[in-house]
Here is the input.
Amino acid sequence: MKAFIDRIFNKRKQDDKQIKESITTETKATEAMVEAIIKEVKQEQVITYPKPNHFPDCNCNKCMRWKKQNA
Here is the structure.
């Protein structure tokens, strides 16, 4: 009976170790994916629009885009 109980407890300990190992590998994989996505986003350049030479109260698309960019 003691041998049977020892086998059960040893099996549970092994299962716990395997679960912890799989969780750590999954978290490492997700961290690597997140880092790759962050690098891609940082590499994208932000488009800056030049100031249009219109009147100060102009509401055309170019002027509005420039005003929103500098807000």
